[in-house]
């Protein structure tokens, strides 16, 4: 199971011009192979952004973290250490180290997400400002089968401006197409 990000542009988009923007950001235009998705968007050209999985994407990350926080139960580490016969001083040191490591991991992840969101914002704004497309859509899906045969239910289609783009990208929902247009 892997996440892949798809893009959509109106059928009349100059794909050569769009390809130049893609190239500037390290991507190339890859036509989507999934007929189920393309049938749901008959007036649009559907593209896949990468040839590899996008499981580390920042798209929808805030929404996923909120859902994870609601279902995650922290392990009772202290009880496990006590069962192992650790002294209170050793437990305190281990917990302090664990907390420090967790804070560093959270900070690193936050930095990575910020860089990735900035990259997405720059890309989308360049597509629109360069008039490479009149609007630009993004959708991500967790594939359980092949990229060609998996059924992708487009649950919702939403049109947005580029205002608050960072928030919009971080709160995307899986299997929803988000169109972005200039203000």
Description:
The protein has helices spanning 15-24, 35-40, 61-71, 77-83, 88-129, 165-170; strands at residues 2-10, 30-31, 44-48, 136-143, 156-161, 176-181. The chain has 183 residues and is of the alpha+beta class. It has a domain at 2-63 and 122-181. The chain has a six-stranded mixed beta sheet. Strand 5, helix 6 and strand 6 form a beta-alpha-beta unit. The radius of gyration is 21 Å and the shape is elongated. The two termini are 36 Å apart.
Multimer state: single chain
Q: Could you say which structural class the secondary elements and strand pairing correspond to?
A: alpha+beta
Please count the helical segments. Answer: 6
**Largest β sheet strand count, sense and barrel closure:** 6 strands, mixed
User: What overall form do the CA principal axes indicate?
Assistant: elongated
Distance between the termini: 36 Å
Estimated share of beta-strand residues: 15-25%
Number of DSSP-assigned strands: 6
Question: How are the secondary structure elements laid out?
Answer:
Layout: E1 2-10, H1 15-24, E2 30-31, H2 35-40, E3 44-48, H3 61-71, H4 77-83, H5 88-129, E4 136-143, E5 156-161, H6 165-170, E6 176-181
Parallel strand pairs: 5-6
Antiparallel strand pairs: 1-3, 1-4, 2-3, 4-6
Describe this protein with a few key phrases.
elongated; single chain; 183 residues; six-stranded mixed beta sheet; alpha+beta; 45% helix
Short description:
With 183 residues, the protein is of the alpha+beta class.
């Amino acid at each position: 199971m892997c996440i892949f990000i798809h893009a959509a542009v109106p059928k009349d988009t100059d794909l050569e011009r769009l390809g130049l923007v893609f190239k500037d950001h390290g991507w190339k235009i890859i036509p989507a192979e999934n007929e189920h998705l393309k049938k749901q968007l008959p007036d649009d050209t559907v593209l896949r952004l990468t040839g590899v999985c996008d499981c580390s994407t920042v798209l929808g990350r805030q929404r996923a973290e909120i859902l994870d926080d609601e279902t995650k139960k922290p392990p009772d580490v202290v009880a496990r250490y006590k069962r192992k016969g650790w002294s209170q001083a050793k437990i305190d040191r281990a917990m302090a180290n664990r907390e420090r490591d967790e804070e560093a991991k959270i900070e690193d992840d936050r930095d990575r997400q910020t860089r990735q969101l900035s990259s997405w914002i720059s890309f989308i704004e360049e597509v629109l400002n360069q008039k490479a497309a009149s609007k630009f859509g993004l959708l991500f899906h967790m594939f359980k089968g092949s990229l060609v045969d998996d059924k992708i239910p487009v649950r919702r289609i939403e049109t947005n401006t580029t205002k608050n783009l960072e928030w919009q990208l971080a709160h995307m929902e899986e299997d929803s197409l988000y169109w972005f247009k200039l203000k």
